[in-house]
Amino acid sequence: MKNDIKFVQGNEACVEAALYAGLDFFAGYPITPSTEIAEHMAVRLPQIGGKFLQMEDEIASLCAIIGASLTGNKVMTATSGPGFSLMQEALGYAIMAEIPCVIVNVQRGGPSTGLPTHASQGDINQARWGTHGDHGIIALTASSHQDLFDITIEAFNLAETYRTPVLLMLDEIIGHMRERLFVPKPGKIPLVSRLKTSVKQGVDYHPYLPREDGRLPMSDFGGVHRYNVTGLFHDMWGFPTDNPQIVHGLLRHLLDKINNNVHLIAKYKEYFLEDATTILVSYGSSARSALHLVKNRRNRGERLGLLELQTLWPFPYGIIREKCAHARHVIVVEMNMGQIVREVKIAVEDPEKVFLANRIDGGFITPTDIRNIIRLIQGKGV
Amino acid sequence: MAIKDYLRERFFPHMWCPGCGHGTVLNGMLRAIENLALEKNDIVMVSGIGCSARITGYVDFHTLHTIHGRALAFATGVKMSRPDLNLIVPMGDGDALAIGGNHFIHAARRNIDITAIIMNNRIYGMTGGQFSPLTGYGKMATTAPYANIDHAFDTVSLAISAGATFVARTTTYHVKQLTDIIQKAIQHKGFSVVEVLTQCPTYFGRKNKEGGAVEMLENYKNSTTPVGSQAGQVNPDLIERGIFVEKQMPEYCSEYSKIIQKAVKRK
Ligand SMILES: Cc1ncc(C[n+]2csc(CCOP(=O)(O)OP(=O)(O)O)c2C)c(N)n1
Ligand code: SF4
Ligand SMILES: [Mg+2]
Question: For atom 10 of ligand 1, which residue has the closest CA?
C-alpha cells in the first residue's frame, strides 16, 4: 500500500488536496512561486483521466477553466501577482455568471514583477477589490501544509456551495517550504459536489432563478437544458437586461449570498485567547512566526494569544470583535503595509488599541521581528 | 428543422441596425447547422463582446457570451472537457484579432477542433466606429479622423501561418457560399477559420462613404473573386474568397487523450 505520509512543498500539498477534492481540469501559465502547482498537475491529472492545459497567458487560463466548469467539472488555476492582475476581468465574469472555480495566488512581493522569489502578503486587498464593480468574494489562506490541504478542499466546497470563484491566497513561504503532509483516506473529508437541477428535459429551466436558500441548481453545458450565460446583467434565463429591478436584485444576490453567510464561511484558529491581554491577529506564513512567539512568551508567563484567520474575505468582523473584546492590545502581523489591520480596526470597538507588526522587505517576518514591535507598542523599547 | 427552430424568439427583436451584415452571417450559420442536421444539445456557441458577439443570445444552443477577445479561451475549456460537442465561435474583427489576437493564433497553433467565424466589418461597431486591425490603411474611423495609418492583417494568411487547418473567406453577398463554407468548417476536424466580410453601414459605411447596405453588398460582389481565378491573377486588388487551406493534422483533444493513456499506464 502506498504511504499516505508525504514530505512535500506547499504547492504540491495544494495539488494533492485539489485532486482529493475531485479536481478534473486545470489550466495555467508558469509563474514563480506557483509554477510547481502547474508542473505537478501536468503529471497527476492525466493519470486520473483529468485534463491539464498550459495556456498562452493567465487570462486564457482562467477563461478556459470557467468554460470547463460549465460542463460540470471541478476546476482550478494557479498563479502569482502579475498573473493574478491579468485575471481580474475574467474573475469578475465568473462572479457575475456564478461559475464555481478555484484560483490560487501564491503571492510574491509587488507591485509589478516585484520580488518573484520572496515572501509577501501584498495582494490581500487586490483579492477583495481587484475586479471592477461591487461584488462579494471568498478568499482563504493557510499557514501549514496540513491546514493548506484542508483549506484547499474547503475552497472547492465553498465554490460549489455558493457558485462562485474562491481565491486561495498562499504566499511564497508556504508554496515553497517543505513539510510533512498526511493525506487522509478518500471519504474522510466531506466533499460538496455540484448542485444539479432536477428540472427534467422539456420543462422550462431557469438557470439564474435562485432557490429560496439563494442557491442556483446548475445544468451542465452539453446537457439537456440549453441556456445563455453572460457577464452582462441578466434575467432568470441568463439573457441580458438593464431592467433596474432585475439589476438591483442580481447585484444584491451576488453580495448577499456571501456576506449573509460569513458565520458559515469563516474559518479561523485560536491559541491562548481566553486570558490574553495582547492578541496577535495573523494569517498565512506570518501566523507561523506569530504562533512561535506566542508559545515562547507563554512559557515565560506573558498573556499573549493568537487569532489565526483562514478566511480573509468575507472578513469575519463579528469574530474579531468578540475575540478581541477584552484585549488591551491587538497586533496584526502581516507582510504588507497593513491590509488586514484596516479591517481589524473597523471590527473592534476601540480602534486605538489595534497596531500593525509588519515586514515589507521581502524577508520573512520572524518571531523576533514581532517581539521587537510588541515591545515598542507596549512602551518597553527594543 | 426550420431556421426558426434554432432561434430563441423570446429574445427578439435583435439589437442589430437595419442593413447590418451580422444577421446574414447568423442565417448562413443556422442553414449550415440545419444541413448538417446537428442536435441543438450538441452545439456550444461561445462569443466575446461586440455587435457580432450578441449572436449567441439569439440561438437555441448552449450559449456562452463572455468577455472581449477571450471567447476562444473559454471555448478551449469547454471543448477540452467535452470533445464530443461542436464548438462554434463567432467573433468580431476587433474581438478576434486585436484584443483576442493572441488567443486566436494559439488556438490555431493547437489545432483544437473549434470553428472560428470572424465577422469582419473592418470597424468596432459596438463602441461606435473606431478602427480595428482589419480597417486598413487610409480608411476613416472615429479614432482615425485624418485617415488610418495602421496596416491591416490579412486574416487568411495569419490563420494559415498560425497553423489553422481549415481557412476560408467569403462575404455576406455570397450567401450560398457562406453556408457551404461554414458547413465544411464545422465538419472539419481541427481548428477552422472562416472570415466573412460583413457590412456595417452605420459606421464603416458612413465614415468611408461606401453608401448603405445595398451598395456595400454590391461592393463585395465587385471587389472579390473566387480563389485561384483568372480575374484574381489579372487584378491583384480583388479579394479572393473560397477555401484556402483544408488539411488533416493531429487534433488537440485527440492528442490529449493519448497523453491520458500514457499517463495512466505509467502511474
Ligand atoms: C476589455 C474591454 N475593452 C474594451 C471593450 C469595449 N468594446 C466592446 S465591443 C468592442 C469592439 C467591437 O468590435 P468588433 O469586435 O469588431 O465587433 P463588432 O461590434 O464590430 O461586431 C470594444 C472595443 C470591452 N468590452 N472590453
Ligand atoms: S453598429 Fe454596425 S456592426 Fe453594429 S449592429 Fe450596427 S451595423 Fe451592425
Ligand atoms: Mg467589427
Answer: B50
Provide the domain limits for residue B76: 3-266
**CB-based contact, A103 to chain B, within 8 Å:** no
CATH of the domain at B195: 3.40.50.970
CB contact under 8 A, A25 and B77: yes
Q: Once rounded to an integer, what is the mean pLDDT over residues A354-362? A: 97
- pLDDT, tens digit, 9 for 90 and up, residues A196-249: 999 999 999 999 999 988 899 999 999 999 999 999 999 999 999 999 999 999
Give the model confidence (pLDDT) of B182-216 as tens digits: 999 999 999 999 999 999 999 999 999 999 999 99
Per the structure, the count of domains in chain B is 1
Distances (CA, A) of B172 to A227, B123, B176, B232, B241: 28, 16, 9, 19, 12
Distance between CA atoms of residues A73 and A220, nearest Å: 9
Spatial distance between the Cα atoms of A9 and A149, rounded to a whole number of angstroms = 12
Which among A27, A51, A70 has the least Cβ separation from residue B64? A70
* Alpha-carbon dihedral sign for residues A111, A114, A115, A116: positive
Segment among A313-317, B7-11, B84-88 with least mean pLDDT? B7-11
B43, B33 Cβ separation under 8 angstroms = yes
Position B59 scores a pLDDT of 98
Q: Is A359 helix (H, G, I), strand (E, B) or coil?
A: coil
Cα B85 off chain centre by: 18
Whole-number Å distance, alpha carbon B118 to ligand 1 midpoint, is: 13
For residue A58, what is the nearest residue in chain B, using CA coordinates? Answer: B73
Residue-wise pLDDT tens digits, B207-256: 999 999 999 999 999 999 999 999 999 999 999 999 999 999 999 999 99
* Residue bearing the bigger pLDDT, A3 or A162: A162
The residue to mutate among B17, B72, B127, having the most atoms of ligand 1 within 8 angstroms of its beta carbon, is: B127
Cα of B105 to ligand 1 centre, how many Å?
A: 19
Nearest ligand to the C-alpha of residue B92? 1
DSSP, res B12: P
Q: Which residue intervals of chain A bear CATH 3.40.50.970?
A: 5-182
Q: For the segment B144-188, what is each residue's pLDDT rounded down to a tens digit?
A: 999 999 999 999 999 999 999 999 999 999 999 999 999 999 999
CATH superfamily of the A5-182 domain: Thiamin diphosphate (ThDP)-binding fold, Pyr/PP domains (3.40.50.970)
Write the single-letter amino acid at A117: T
Question: pTM for this structure?
Answer: 0.98
Rounded to an integer, what distance in angstroms lies between the CA atom of residue A292 and that of residue B92?
Answer: 57
Tens-place pLDDT, residues B80-92: 999 999 999 999 9
Region A268-377: CATH code: 3.40.50.920
Side chain identity at residue B127, one-letter code: T
Closest Cα of chain A to B92: distance in Å? 17
β pairing state of A101-107 and A75-79: parallel
To the nearest whole Å, the CA of B15 is away from the closest chain A CA by 11
Kindly report the average pLDDT of chain A as a whole number.
97
User: Which residue in A45, A53, A69 has the most chain B C-beta atoms within 10 A of its own C-beta, making it the best mutation to test that interface?
Assistant: A53
Whether the CB-CB separation of B118 and B47 falls below 8 Å is answered with no
B122 lines ligand 2 (CB under 6 A): no
Which stretches of chain B are assigned E, i.e. beta strand?
Answer: 43-47, 62-65, 86-92, 114-120, 166-171, 192-197, 224-226, 239-246
The strand pair at A304-309 and A268-271 is best described as antiparallel
